[in-house]
Fold this protein.
Amino acid sequence: MKNLEILSREQVAPETQGIFDALKKKVGMVPNLYATTAHSHAGLVSLLTLGENLDGGEFNAKEGEAIALAVAETNACTYCLSAHTAIGKMVGFSEEDTVKLRTGEIDDTKLAALTKLAKALTENRGHADQTLIDNFLAAGYSKAALVELVGHVVKNTFTNYINHVADTTVDFPLVKPLVTETTA
């Protein structure tokens, strides 16, 4: 038995059904991540609200996907790697770009500074080498972007961890982590 099953519209709280309807209208489906998180109305609303607020901030859609890919790779989250590879291609990245974003080795200097810092924040629980922060700011990102980057890392780590706990069934073309998750 799974720790968290994928819920149908009929299985969720009445106040969550409207969220399912809005997701289906917006993206054509209720991704399994959200259908799993829906075990908690407050959890689902918090995740979606954080995402909506950050989406209107300092980063464009491509940068948001770059962060998501870097964090998902660091956390070895197959579900999020699959979802954000598909979405990354929809916003203009090639398949090769998505792999390079996952490693922080993208040729674009600004995206490289962004993804390397996102990976470091994820790996080191919010701590990052000052050089990575300096490179991020030197690449043209603002201090507001630095704050929002932490928010994006938190949002993506939340989804990665939900998927780990739930072993969420991937409903996007499957992408595997480049490295396996290590345990301490």
